[in-house]
Write a structure and sequence with these properties.
Elements: H1 4-10, H2 13-18, E1 27-30, E2 36-41, E3 44-48, E4 55-61, H3 68-82, E5 91-96, H4 99-104, H5 128-145, E6 152-161, E7 170-173, H6 183-191, E8 196-199, H7 207-215, E9 218-226, H8 239-250, E10 265-274, E11 280-281, E12 293-294, E13 299-303, E14 306-309, E15 315-318, E16 329-336
Parallel strand pairs: 4-5, 4-6, 6-9, 7-8, 8-10
Antiparallel strand pairs: 1-2, 2-3, 3-5, 7-9, 10-16, 11-13, 12-15, 13-14, 15-16
Helix pairs in contact: 5-7
Bound molecules: zinc ion.
The site of zinc ion has 3 residues, from loops.
Length: 344
């Protein structure tokens, strides 16, 4: 096996992944501490400690290839595990989502991978992202379903945002179809340095929604800051995230700070504005940050002849992108949410 020796010696699964953009022959081996290492594909590596575990944890990054900070965090964790510097207490599946897009330094190659999950790939094979989405769904399914018994499942899909944000780090809580939101997950996020959480109100085609909906996993899309090239991230600003993830995978259980609603800024989706016309624009500048609020009646977007105005005082913008394909989401707007009986 050509890369096995290199992987054992360096632990550098990221470089091996980047050298094999579309596929990698599976291998498995056992570390000195008994942990089973299984490479399923390029960018997909699973660790199973040789002890009784209770949690199945998926950590994904590079679903958007130019979002480097989470890739660097996961790369370091994988190296520490393979080199025996970090001993796992739980099963973990690491995924580098889109290796070719890492190499070209772009969000994606042909199509936004994070719009292709939960079956949205339609089993089509006309571009590499659709093929990758199908394969990643299968790896996650196998990972969760091959462990027997009553186990805890989670999936943290790590990103950085294109724009800055008024709240630098934030998480997206996928639609739970009426199930309560978990305060314990908010406490985990706070420990990662994330105090802003956006509760979705509808089904989605994101990786985190897939794991939440299909497997009941506590799953989030976590935005850790702004996109930067490799080597230009201020890793100090990710220290809390890395420490919290390290504790999650290497400890039997983790204690978080007591829940206090005032620690958080929670929002819920108000509406989605799609681009339906070639002539689509925002009245705000390219530097407008996520969670910028608008006064009721202020212009939010112009789509051909249709103008969208803020309907609620404080309606805030998220993920504005005027350059999406026709028919896709150009803007999400959100309004503040209080902690109530819908949280457990
Ligand atoms: Zn992203």
């Amino acid at each position: 096996m050509t890369y096995l020796t290199e992987l054992k010696q360096s632990g550098d699964f990221l470089s091996i992944t980047r050298a094999n953009e579309f596929s990698l022959e599976p291998v498995s081996f056992t570390l000195d501490n008994g942990t089973l290492v299984e490479v399923h594909d390029t960018g997909v590596i699973q660790f199973t400690p040789n002890i009784t575990t209770t949690k199945d944890i998926v950590l994904s990054s590079a679903v958007h290839g130019n979002e480097t900070a989470p890739i660097e965090i996961c790369d370091e964790l994988i190296q520490q595990i393979i080199l025996g510097k970090l001993t796992l207490a739980q099963r973990v599946l690491f995924i580098f989502g889109n290796p070719k897009s890492i190499n070209i330094g772009q969000r994606f190659v042909d199509e936004n991978l994070n719009r292709l999950f939960n079956g949205a790939h339609n089993n089509e094979t006309d571009n590499p992202e659709k093929v990758r989405a199908q394969n990643l769904e299968a790896y996650v399914r196998n990972f969760f379903e091959q462990a027997e018994g009553d186990r805890y499942r989670c999936h943290y899909d790590l990103h950085t945002a294109i724009r800055g944000s008024k709240n630098e780090k934030f998480a997206v809580y996928p639609f739970l179809h009426g199930k309560p939101w978990k305060k314990s997950q908010l406490q985990f996020l706070l420990s990662c340095g994330v105090n802003t959480v956006l509760m979705m109100r509808s089904a989605a085609t994101t990786f985190s929604y897939f794991s939440s909906y299909q497997f009941g996993a506590d799953a989030f899309t976590i935005e850790l800051g702004q996109v930067k090239p490799f080597g230009q991230n201020n890793m100090a600003s990710f220290a809390k995230t890395k420490a919290t993830l390290t504790a999650l995978i290497s400890q039997e259980s983790v204690e978080y700070k007591d829940f206090n609603a005032s620690d958080f800024e929670l929002f819920t989706v108000h509406r989605t504005i799609n681009r339906t016309q070639e002539a689509f624009s925002f009245p705000f500048s390219d530097s407008a940050v996520n969670f910028t609020g608008f006064s009721k009646g202020e212009l939010l977007a112009t789509d051909g002849d249709t103008e969208y105005f803020a309907e609620v005082e404080g309606e805030a913008i998220i993920f504005p992108n005027a350059n999406v394909a026709l028919g896709q989401r150009a803007l999400l707007t959100v309004v503040p949410l209080e902690v109530d009986e819908n949280f457990i």
